[in-house]
Specification:
This protein is an alpha/beta fold. 25% of the residues lie in helices and 25% in strands. Strand 14, helix 9 and strand 15 form a beta-alpha-beta unit. Helix 2 packs across helix 3. 44% of the residues are buried.
């Protein structure tokens, strides 16, 4: 029988927490590349929190996924047929082909991966979008200075774990929040954070942060929003900076949450708060990846991957990601 293209599509829009019935595994013919295109057999695909927002039918920074369409996402695999002058069969290429075993691209946004540098799966993590988000979000948005205190939420995740390590490279004191004792040990023992606490067992986030940040907070890299972020505001120092990368605590909310109104701290402490998308620095990605690769190969940046086997398990891998049942970067290895 001919090889088929297995795809995970959006069966219906999730209401609140996603469930199995929101996704559908389908089989289609393997697409054929036209002139100027290449066909890739994917080996790994990414699952990321931002995908939850793309499943909604509302205006955002990118179009929502249509019902019946393939779930969006980054992939890496091998070119099996090319009609593109910049790629040839056998090349390992990272592209944005979504949750499917095969995909065609015209090459826009695709990049060749040097498999001798690191495992190709890292092109979806520490040497891919999450790593670049950490790099630009910390260095360009918050401009940390040696000796300052940097707090990172979701510190054991794909982005937060890299943020903390880049801050350490730049001479900062780094404190993280995480959702289990195992994750806290990981950021302290493996990644070299100066302090961390388990927000699921802390009864007072502000007190926990105050104990770990006796000199206040200069930089906050926010991946979660919600009560953890609320607790940071009173502890900001004068001229504090905050990078808003994600709000994962809100992604499954069905009603807008009501919380403290804390923006008066922006006035009294002259805070600077900025959201970010990694695409804002698209023209600088190659340069940043070269520096990131040096840090990875030298051991200055460590990483962990949580690999789920089989494309059919991608929905559960994604739902588990939103529950926080992983450490580091979660990827799906396509069977």
């Amino acid at each position: 029988m001919p090889e088929m293209n297995r795809q995970i599509t959006l069966a219906q829009r999730p209401y609140g927490v996603p469930k199995d019935s929101d996704f559908k595994l389908v089989e289609t013919d393997v697409p054929e590349p036209e002139a100027g295109e290449l066909l890739i057999r994917n080996e790994y695909m990414s699952v990321d929190p931002y995908m939850r927002g793309r499943m909604n039918d509302r205006k955002s920074y990118a179009p929502g996924i249509e019902i019946g369409a393939v779930i969006v996402g980054a992939t890496v695999g091998q070119v099996i047929e090319s009609n593109h002058p910049g790629f040839q069969s056998g090349d390992t290429v990272q592209a944005s082909l979504g949750w499917q075993t095969h995909g065609v691209t015209n090459g826009d946004g695709a990049r060749k991966i040097d498999s001798s540098l690191a495992p190709i799966s890292t092109s979806l993590g520490v040497l891919g979008m999450p790593g670049l988000t950490a790099y630009f979000g910390l260095l360009d948005v918050t401009n940390p200075v040696a000796g300052e205190t940097v707090v990172v939420s979701a510190a054991s995740g794909a982005v937060g774990s890299v943020v903390g390590q880049i801050a350490k490279i730049n001479g900062c004191r780094v404190v993280g929040t995480a959702g289990s004792d195992e994750k806290v040990r990981y950021v302290l023992d493996d990644l070299g954070f100066d302090g961390a606490f388990n927000y699921k067992t802390s009864i007072d986030y502000e007190a926990s942060l105050s104990e770990l940040c006796p000199d206040g907070i200069d930089v906050y890299f926010d991946n979660v929003g919600g009560p953890v972020t609320d607790a940071v505001f009173p502890l900001f120092n004068l001229w504090g900076r905050m990078a808003v990368c994600g709000q994962i605590s809100q992604y499954n909310a069905t009603e807008p949450p009501v919380g403290p109104r804390l923006f008066w701290h922006c006035i009294t402490k002259r805070l600077r708060i900025q959201g970010l998308l990694v695409s804002d620095w698209a023209d600088q990605h190659d340069q940043a990846l070269r520096e990131m690769a040096q840090w990875v190969t030298s051991g200055q940046i460590k990483y962990r991957e949580d690999v789920v086997e089989g494309i059919e398990n991608a929905p559960e891998a994604f739902m588990g990601l939103l529950r926080g049942d992983h450490i580091g970067k979660r990827v799906v290895k396509i069977g």
